[in-house]
């Protein structure tokens, strides 16, 4: 098994467990969020590619964390942390792809609940939508 397949397998397991926690409690444990970042960092060390690349892999998640501080009612801090874990595991480009894909999958559900069901104060977990984007990426690409 090559390291890329191992990273993608770790990502899939990480997002599955994150989705379960996010659906059940709407909160992700800190140790779980740190585990993804630490595993991705350890894999970078094993590949001897530790450099500014690790910072760039974490940058989209850091940006999402900062955005969640600006709009705390709309975005959870855990979403930024999980994106940092995703970035550490598979890279910043894949992390941004999963963020965008998650938003694309989230939009119809949020639209349905807001317009059809007329629920204005709805908190939707985001990690399951990132998982859907990950599965879509694995199936299509």
Task: Write structural notes for this entry.
The chain is mainly α. It has six helices and no strands. The two termini are 19 Å apart.
Describe what is shown at a glance.
The protein is an all-alpha fold and 141 residues long.
Task: Report strand %.
Answer: under 5%
* Low-confidence blocks of residues: none
Q: Given the structure, what is the number of helices?
A: 6
- Given helix and strand content, the structural type is mainly alpha
What string, H for helix and E for strand, traces the elements in order? HHHHHH
Largest sheet: none
Outline: globular
Number of strands: 0
Please render the helix and strand layout as text:
Blueprint: H1 3-25, H2 30-46, H3 52-70, H4 77-90, H5 92-116, H6 127-140
Question: Main traits of this protein?
Answer:
141 residues, mainly alpha, 6 helices, globular
């Amino acid at each position: 098994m090559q390291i890329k397949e191992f990273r993608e397998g770790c990502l899939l397991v990480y997002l599955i467990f994150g989705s379960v926690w996010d659906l059940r409690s709407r909160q992700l444990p800190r140790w779980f969020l740190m585990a993804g970042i630490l595993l991705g960092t350890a894999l970078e060390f094993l590949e001897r590619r530790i450099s500014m690349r690790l910072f760039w892999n974490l940058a989209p998640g850091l940006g999402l964390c900062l955005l969640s501080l600006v709009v705390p009612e709309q975005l959870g801090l855990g979403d930024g942390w999980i994106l940092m874990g995703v970035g550490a595991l598979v890279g910043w480009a894949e992390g941004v792809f999963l963020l965008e894909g998650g938003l694309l999958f989230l939009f119809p559900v949020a639209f349905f609940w807001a317009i059809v069901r007329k629920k204005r104060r709805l908190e939707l977990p985001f990690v399951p939508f990132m998982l859907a984007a990950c599965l879509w990426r694995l199936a299509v690409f």
